Amino acid sequence: MLNKVPLLKALKNDNWVRPFLRHYRKTLILAISLGILTFVCGAGLMFVAGYLISKSATHPDNILLVYVPIVLTRAFGIGRPAFRYFERLVSHNWVLRMTSRLRQKLYDTLEFDATKLNSKYQLGDILGLLSDDIHHIQNLYLRTMFPMFVSWGLYTIIVVGIGYLSIWMGLWMLVVFGLMIFAIPLWSVLINGARQELQKQVKDDLYVNLTDNVMGVGDWVLSGRSDAYMSLHNDNEKQFAESEKAMNRFERWRDFLIQMLILVVAVSLIIWGASEFGGQHGGAANWIAAFVLAVFPLVDAFAPLPAAAQETNVYTDSLVRLNNLDDHADRIQEEVESAEGPYSLAVEDVHYTYPNTTKEVLKGVSLKVNAGEKLAILGKSGAGKSTLAALLRGDRTPTSGSIELNGIDTSKFGDHISNYISVINQSPYLFNTTIANNIRLGNEDATDEQIWDVLRRVGLEKMVKALPDGIETMVDEAGLRFSGGERHRMSLARILLKDSPIVILDEPTVGLDPITEQSVINTIFEQLDGKTLIWITHHLQGIDEVDQVIFIEDGQIEMHGTPAELWANNQRYQELKKADQGL
To answer: Does the global pTM surpass 0.70?
Structure first.
């Protein structure tokens, strides 16, 4: 169970909703103002209509006594639906913007903390979190906060307006409307709010019991306790139904009391109007009808308040539960943004085993790649080279050990890792769209001039200009209209637009003939000069261009050094290079 925290305290300590309140405060104020104007127009329409109907039954001394109310009736009649429409438009736009951002923040948090959540919460708790809490935050504003602020504004206008005419009647309205706005909602919170909170807990228990028991239904059947399972579920359903029945009974009495208070207000205005305006020219009936009819549109503003107020306990639970989540998304975003160049990678005693397997792919790999260095990772197929590349990018998390970019675990970067590490795969994929759109995957805001520039740098400018539509030429699915070397060069063009400081070359020349392979390698090293390169390859053509070489075998680093050092001192490296050159 969550610790019970009053709503105001929960909002005070909230870091989920309050930032959006500050960000959209002007829209919030506009929505509340429009809501107040809606009810003012409704009350004004009934006020002048009541006056006009009764006044029209008598002989007016001046035509203006009828004409002015007619004009006001039209104005209020047009103003009420117009203000209502814009109020709904503004308030729902505000709430939906806020809740969409909240959902994104919640999903980011769950994504970053998926492993911990699995051990911290039961599946039913997570379902309850996703299905209810954001919805409750939305209702907190649409059904509670907005109506409450609007009613406070109307309350002030009523008390001040009538108090201006009669101080005693103003004080009486202060008391009667105060019962509807403050006392009865508080009573609902204390009585029905507790029942609603219990109902929410029973509903969450149903989520938990349903998911846990359905997944383990085989155990229930095998143990011969299927009746016990049904009994448990029926008990929860019965408790939920009893709670709902008690709530409905309370709500009927509460709504009856509110209607009685509205009747008291109407009777009070009749008595007050007769005594206050009875001696004026035109008679009391004109004003009695006006004041009494003006009350009825206000019922829609005050009557929903108790029902909305009783839900604040549920809203509080949702706020507390959301704020109890580890807010990884924001913290990690701040941590990632604090990473400044030059960028270096540190791999420390990394072990990795794929899920649902027992074979260890990497066994205690450690290395350091400084900014601007070129590292070649050699090894046979299945040695763990591509697995290491996935770990370097943060696509996978080591079973043990760490991989850090400037002291930050690469798995924390999420989608932002592409700002720091790019990849050229052995089979670059081109989508069935234009050449320009394919290259703009590196930078969506790139201009045509920038695209032509990177095409020139990778040696494709002449070829693309010869095409009928230039960079607007459609690329067949998977880019099959282009050769392997051209596809690799387009992939390099994307990387140049992205301008990431670190580039992983995952066997980018596989399947190319030796001449094309050497040409692509030369272009890559020339255009990416000054960047950190991690080149995964299975043979040694162009290996002398790198600063250090490691050879992975059976998940471990078997040799490590510069190309010159290994050629001079490592017999196996010598044999590999000679074999690669056909010597």
So the answer is: no
